[in-house]
Amino acid sequence: MGGYFVTPVENEALDVNAHNEQEQKLVKHPDKSLWAVKVLPGNKYIQARLTGKIVQSLSVDWNAEDT
User: Fold this and answer.
1) For residues 22 and 56, what is the distance between their CA atoms, to the nearest angstrom?
2) Whole-number mean pLDDT of the chain?
3) What residue ranges do the domains of the chain occupy?
4) Residue 66 clears pLDDT 60, i.e. is over it
5) Quick one: residue 45, left, alpha or beta (phi over 0 = left, psi -120 to 50 = alpha)?
6) 7: pLDDT confidence band, cut at 50, 70 and 90?
């Protein structure tokens, strides 16, 4: 699994990140109440029932550098 986990719940993004083999940068959307974190292969926590969703990449409006 790869891509980014996007959620309105900051703690969900932190939990997903905690289950990455290597910690990733948490990204806050500049205008919306959304958080994103890169999901590394092998992250099994992402299979939990969470509010957010997986996207392949972040749209330009995130103003995020490739993490």
Assistant:
1) 19
2) 89
3) 4-56
4) no
5) alpha
6) very high
pTM above 0.85, yes or no: no
Beta bridge partners of 7: 35
Indicate if the pLDDT at residue 38 is higher than 90. Answer: yes
Tokens of 49: 């029932």
- As given in the structure block, the two tokens for residue 67 are 């993490």
SS3 66: coil
* Torsion angles phi and psi, residue 35, rounded to 5: -125, 150
Residue with structure tokens 């980014």? 4
| Residues 13 and 54 sit within 8 Å (Cβ to Cβ) | no
Alpha carbon 48 to its chain centroid, in Å, reads 14
